[in-house]
Amino acid sequence: MTISDTRRLAAGDTLVLASHNAGKLAEFSALLAGHGVTLVSAGQLGLPEPEETADSFAGNAALKARAAATASNLPALADDSGLCVAALDGAPGIYSARWAGPAKDFPAAMARIHAGIGGNPDRAAWFISVLCLAWPDGTLRTFEGRIDGRIAWPPRGGNGHGYDPVFQPVGEARTFAEMPEAEKNAISHRALAFVRFRDDCLPPAHP
Ligand SMILES: O=c1nc[nH]c2c1ncn2[C@H]1C[C@H](O)[C@@H](COP(=O)(O)OP(=O)(O)OP(=O)(O)O)O1
Ligand SMILES: [Mg+2]
């Protein structure tokens, strides 16, 4: 293990969120509360949105984190995430954002999932989040989280973002979009990956 593998952020540090997704920014702001780290988003810094050319969540998270850390000369955290549907052989997966198109038309993307499942009784689905922390010197740390559930239809709820209205976690009667932000943030794929990142890379929280 090299020294950089165990490097942590310190209280007072600025962390760039290498994302242009407002829903993720809201979730990370809540998750980071109390840790003494200032979060600034790639959008706020005017950083470009890199093209996601990798073939895996981890590859795309690394590419986004590296681009932001290099451009800002600050540590940067990226999230690459997506919804995987069993009946669709794991699609949309890494293409989850692209299924919604440049207009971010998630109602259309959810309808495409519903149509694709058709009469298949297997409604299993899962969300994956891979977080990548990049330091300006190019060093990377990667953390993954997953939550299992099923595809609900029709979409329900007005909270959250993206595919939340059709995702019902295992053991839950509500969709993510019907849950208060804090409840989703306690169990989500992103929250699970964040806990791993927090334990390894953040200073202790002070409530
Ligand atoms: O908790 C979630 N609740 C609902 N939908 C979600 C969630 N997590 C990921 N998703 C879906 C929508 C998102 O658009 C796509 C991720 O694609 P992904 O490339 O990682 O994010 P993005 O393009 O929206 O923003 P950015 O790359 O700037 O971080 O998967
Ligand atoms: Mg993206």
TrEMBL record:
Q: CDD domains this protein is in?
A: HAM1
Enzymatic reactions:
dITP + H2O = dIMP + diphosphate + H(+); ITP + H2O = IMP + diphosphate + H(+); XTP + H2O = XMP + diphosphate + H(+)
Gene3D superfamilies reported in the protein's UniProt record: 3.90.950.10
User: What keywords is this UniProt entry annotated with?
Assistant: Hydrolase, Magnesium, Metal-binding, Nucleotide metabolism, Nucleotide-binding
InterPro entries hit by this protein = dITP/XTP_pyrophosphatase (IPR020922), ITPase-like_fam (IPR029001), RdgB/HAM1 (IPR002637)
Q: Which domain of life is it from?
A: Bacteria
Q: Name one GO molecular function term.
A: ITP diphosphatase activity
Q: Which cofactor does it need?
A: Mg(2+)
Annotated Mg(2+) binding lies at 51, 80
The catalytic site is made up of 80 (proton acceptor)
Q: Which residues bind substrate?
A: 19-24, 81, 161-164, 184, 189-190
Cofactor binding note: Binds 1 Mg(2+) ion per subunit.
- Give EC number(s), comma-separated: 3.6.1.66
Write out the similarity annotation.
Belongs to the HAM1 NTPase family.
Instruction: Give the record's subunit note.
Output: Homodimer.
Purpose of the protein: Pyrophosphatase that catalyzes the hydrolysis of nucleoside triphosphates to their monophosphate derivatives, with a high preference for the non-canonical purine nucleotides XTP (xanthosine triphosphate), dITP (deoxyinosine triphosphate) and ITP. Seems to function as a house-cleaning enzyme that removes non-canonical purine nucleotides from the nucleotide pool, thus preventing their incorporation into DNA/RNA and avoiding chromosomal lesions.
The protein's name: dITP/XTP pyrophosphatase
Q: Which organism is it from?
A: Nguyenibacter vanlangensis
Annotated gene: rdgB
